[in-house]
């Protein structure tokens, strides 16, 4: 049996009422921005934390808790801030460039705020104090 498929004329078709599909591959871009934030945040934080790791003069100010408390929080924040900003912007707008711009801006502001707000504790050296 041979059946021929007849196409309907273009004017009798129902209009397409579906929402436009999201561009493919945009989820990977959000993950890329999260990875970028997770890499850049500790690099910006490390110079301020260096005094706590090496301890300064004779190691008197050593505080290794910056490595197992502060560093994971910095990496987590660096990953979450751009990822959340990207996801929220993507939901609110359909422009493909807006989520990227907002995520990169949020990461920059987050790192700037981190460097302005976070300062590691520097205990006084034992030799500091009143003169002899």
Can you describe what's shown?
This protein is mainly α and 132 residues long. The chain is built from 3 helices and no strands. The chain has helices spanning 26-54, 65-92, 98-117. Helix 1 runs antiparallel to helix 2 (65-92), helix 1 runs parallel beside helix 3 and helix 2 (65-92) runs antiparallel to helix 3. The longest helix has 29 residues, at 26-54. The protein is rod-shaped and about 90 Å long.
Shape: rod-shaped
The helical percent reads 55-70%
| Main beta-sheet annotation | none
Low-confidence segments: none
Averaged pLDDT: 77
How big is the Rg?
Answer: 27 Å
**Care to count the β-strands?**
0
Distance between the termini: 111 Å
Main structural class: mainly alpha
Strand content: under 5%
* Helix segment tally: 3
- Pattern of helices and strands: HHH
How is the topology of this model organized?
Blueprint (H helix, E strand, L loop, with lengths): L25 H29 L10 H28 L5 H20 L15
